[in-house]
Amino acid sequence: MTKQVSFLVVSAIVIGFIAADNRKFIDPQNMDMSVKPGDNFYEYANGNWLKKNEIPASKTSWGSFNELREKSLDAMKTLLEDASKTTTKGRLYQMVGDFYESGMDSLTIEKRGFDPIKPDLDRIEKVNNKAAFLNELAYQRTQSNGMLFGFFVGQDRKNVNKYLPQFSQGGTTLPDRDYYLKNDARSQKVRDAYRDHLTKMFGLIGEEPTQSSQDADVVIRVETALAKAQMPRVELRDPYKTYNKFTVAQFSQQTPGINWMDHMAKLGVKGQDTVLVQNPSFYRSLDSLVAATPIEEWQTYMRWNILKGAAPYLSSPFVNQNFAFSKVLSGQKEQTARWQRVSSLIDGSLGDLLGQLYVQKYFKPEAKQRMLALVDNLEASYKEHIKKLDWMSEDTKAKALNKLLAFKRKIGYPDKWKNYDGVAVNRTDFYGNMESAGKWQYNYMINRLGKPVDRTEWGMTPPTVNAYYSPVNNEIAFPAAILQFPFFDADADDAVNYGGIGAVIGHEMTHGFDDSGRQYDSDGTLRDWWTKADADNFKKRADQVRDQFSGFKVLDTIKVNGQLTLGENLADLGGLAIAYDAFKKTPQGKSSGKKSMIDGFSPDQRFFLSWAQVWRINVLPETQAQLIMVDPHAPGQYRCNGPLSNITAWYQAFDVKPGDKMYKKPEDRIKVW
Angle CA(416)–CA(464)–CA(329) in degrees, nearest 5? Predict the structure, then answer.
C-alpha cells in the first residue's frame, strides 16, 4: 500500500500538469457542436474533422491511426534514404539502406519481370505424384512460401515455458471463409473478381487464355474445399477449442495420407514428439482433399501460391494486377506510393534493425518514464476496481489481483535486438532480399525449439502505431510510434493523456480479463482460475456487451458482429473506466471551477473528448464491409460511443439526459471491470 501511495505522489509530479504551450490538444474547430453530445458523441467531438479530412486516393481509411502511421512512414523514409546513401556506418546501415535501394530500383525490377520465380515454377513442373507434392510443400515452406495450411513454432498455452510446433487451418486467399461460402451480392462480386484476377495473373506468366481460365477454376475449387473445412472466426477465439495436443504419431493417424514425422523432418523440425493442432477436422478434410485431387491440380495450386506470394515484388504488370483486385475488396482508388510499400516491407523484414535507427532519432527516453508512471497509475486504479467488484468472490478477486500485479510492461522498444545474421542483402536484388529475409525468419522460428522461451521478444516493431497484450506472456506492450499525439504528448494536460494513451493502457490490461484473456492465469498458462458462479457472472455481463454491439448498424444490412468483436469491446469499456478513475487521482482530475477550464472545456470533458478523437476515422464502404467480416474491432464510431453510454461520469460531464439518443438508464449501464 505504501508503494502505491508514494508512487501516486511521484506520478503527480511527473505527469500532473496543465498544458504548457498554445497548441489545442482539444480543438473546437474539429467538433460539430450542432450535434448534441448525448445524441452522437462521436459526431459532436469529431464531426468537422470528419468533413474536412477526406480519405486520400491511396488509402482505404483516414483517421488518427492513419495520421500517425503516415508520420511513422515519413520517419522511416528519412532513415532509409539516409542509410541508402551511407557507406561508412557499418552493417546495420548497409542492410536497411541496400534493401531500400533495391526496392526503389524499379528499372531493375521491371527488367527482371517474373524471372525471380521461374526456378520455383520449374520445380513445381517436375512434381508428378503425391509424395513429390508433399515434399515440395515442405521445401517451399522452408523458403518462406507456406501454403495449404498454417505452421508455426510458439509457446504451449498449457506449458508456457516450452515452444511447440503448431498447425493451424489455412490454404485460402480471400480474407475470410465466408467469401467462398456465402451467396449474397457482395460475396459473389468478390468471387467473380477473384476468378478474373486469377485468370489474368496466370496469363502474366505466359499461360494461354483457355489454360489460365481452367487454372482459375482449379484454384477456386481447391480453396472453396479448404474454406468449408475451416472454423469460423468466432470459434477461433476460443482458446480451448483450438487447443488440441497430439503426439506426432496420433496426428498422423488423423491423416492417413500424410506422415507428419516425415513431413516435419523436411520442415527442419527434429526431436519433437508432440504438436498442437488448431482445428483437427480441417486436417482430416485436408488429407481427403490431397488424396482426391489430381496432381496436375495441385501443381496449379502451388503455382498460384508462388505467384501470389511474389507478385508485390515483381514487375509492374504483377503489382498492378494485384492492386486491381485489391480495389474490389477495399475500394482504394490509387496504389500506395512505392516508397511507403518498401518502407513497410523493410519494417516487417528487418524490423529490429530499422527499429534501432527509429528509436535513436525519434524516441525520447523521458517518454518511456512517463509511460511507466501512467502504467503504474492505471494498475493502481485497476486494483481498486477489482477489489470493489460486487459480482466476484473474494477467492477469484485474489487471483485476479495476482494476475494484474504479474503484468509485464514493454515500453518503446526491446531490451535486446535481433541481428539477422545470415540475411544477405543485395542492392540490386529486391526479390532476393525478401526471400533471404523470409528464410531467416523461418529458421529463426524453427531454432526456438528445444530452447528456453524468450520473453524479451516483441510482437511489434518500434515504428508500429499500435499496442498489444500477450496472454501467454501476460504482458502489455506499447511500441514507440504510438506514444505521440493524439494518444500521448509530453506537453498535453493529464485529461488528454489519460483519455488517449491512458485508455489504451487500460484497454491492453483489460485484454488480460476479457472473454478470452481471462482464461489464462498470471503466468500465462491456459488454466481455469474462476469459480463457476464468478464465471457465470462475468459471462452475463459480457453477453450484455455482445448484445449492445450487435445492435449497431454499419452499412445497409450489415451490423457489427458483437461476438467477434467482444474481446475488443470489453477492453475498450474496461480501459476507459479504469483510465477515468486513474485520471481523477491527478491534480487536474481533482480540480474544478472556472480555473480548471481549458479552451472552454472542463477536465472531465477534455478526458472524454480526448477519448473520442482517438477513434475518429473515415472508412471506404468496401473496406468497412470487409472489416466487419474479418476485424475483431468494431468501427471507430461504436468504439467511441458504445463504452461511453455505460460510463456515468460522461453523462454528468455533458449533461446527457433521458430523450438523448445515447441515453441509457443507470440500471442498464453495463459495468464489467
Answer: 140
Say if CB 151 and CB 446 are below 8 A apart.
Answer: no
pLDDT reported for residue 277: 98
- Closest residue by Cα to residue 496 from 44, 42, 24, 43: 24
Q: Do 243 and 158 contact (CB within 8 A), yes or no? A: yes
Report the 10 Å Cβ neighbour count for 241: 12
Q: How many CA atoms lie within 13 A of 201 on its CB side?
A: 31
Rounded-to-5 percentages of helix, strand, coil across the chain: 60, 10, 35
Segments in 16-104 forming alpha helices (H): 41-52, 64-85, 91-104
In this structure, which topology does domain 365-414+490-673 adopt according to CATH? Answer: Collagenase (Catalytic Domain) (3.40.390)
Rounded CA-CA distance 348/327 in Å is 23
Q: How far is CA 491 from the centre of its chain?
A: 29
In which element (H, E) is residue 275 found? strand 274-277
Check pLDDT > 80 for residue 6.
Answer: no
Residue type, 382: Y
Assigned fold of 114-313: Neutral endopeptidase; domain 2 (1.10.1380)
Is 471 strand, coil or helix?
A: coil
Q: What is the pLDDT of residues 515-530, one digit of tens each?
A: 999 999 999 999 999 9
User: 590-633 pLDDT, tens per residue?
Assistant: 998 888 899 999 999 999 999 999 999 999 999 999 999 999 99
Nearest to 505 by CA among 418, 611, 602: 611
Can 114-313 and 365-414+490-673 be said to share one CATH topology?
A: no
For 555, phi then psi, to 5°, come to -140, 135
Domain extents in the chain: 114-313, 365-414+490-673
- CA–CA dist 136, 126 (Å, integer): 10
**pLDDT attached to residue 8:** 21
